[in-house]
């Protein structure tokens, strides 16, 4: 399992560096997903199977969907259509694909080489998980949720049109459009 730990850690560091240095937000999100999956592999190699599963379900799954929706909400205009055509080129997918293949090989190796390390197969109820998360870790859970909420609010304000002091529903053009729709 030491081999899996080091390979997953290396993939996590490389993918995180690409997240930081990449200028394209969608590609940065792809590398962030790979980084989160690699961190899950690190948890698995350390024997924290439940933390690894939560990393995949919560972070690589649900939160990344939220980030993708935020990027889609920015609505960058017609230039995005041409940019999306550029994203379909194979050379742009080689990096994430290669790192994902390495992670897949490490996960298969780790699963095949795992021996019984005290996993007795007893089911844990949702109540026990909630008590564990909101007991000693309540501050960390609440801080993470506030950070994600703040990121969503910032993305909304970055993506909306620049009209200082106006509410979206009080624009002069919007009220004229509503009046013409009502009379028609």
From TrEMBL:
The chain crosses the membrane at residues 28-49, 56-74, 94-112, 133-158. It is found in: Cell membrane. One of its GO terms (molecular function) is oxidoreductase activity. GO terms for cellular component: plasma membrane. It catalyses: a quinone + NADH + 5 H(+)(in) = a quinol + NAD(+) + 4 H(+)(out). Pfam families: Oxidored_q3 (PF00499). It is an enzyme of class 7 (translocase). Its EC number is 7.1.1.-. Keywords: Cell membrane, Membrane, NAD, Oxidoreductase, Quinone, Translocase, Transmembrane, Transmembrane helix. It comes from the Bacteria. Gene3D superfamilies: NADH-ubiquinone/plastoquinone oxidoreductase chain 6, subunit NuoJ. It is a multi-pass membrane protein. The keyword Transmembrane helix applies. The keyword NADP does not apply. Composed of 13 different subunits. Subunits NuoA, H, J, K, L, M, N constitute the membrane sector of the complex. NDH-1 shuttles electrons from NADH, via FMN and iron-sulfur (Fe-S) centers, to quinones in the respiratory chain. Couples the redox reaction to proton translocation (for every two electrons transferred, four hydrogen ions are translocated across the cytoplasmic membrane), and thus conserves the redox energy in a proton gradient. Belongs to the complex I subunit 6 family. This is NADH-quinone oxidoreductase subunit J.
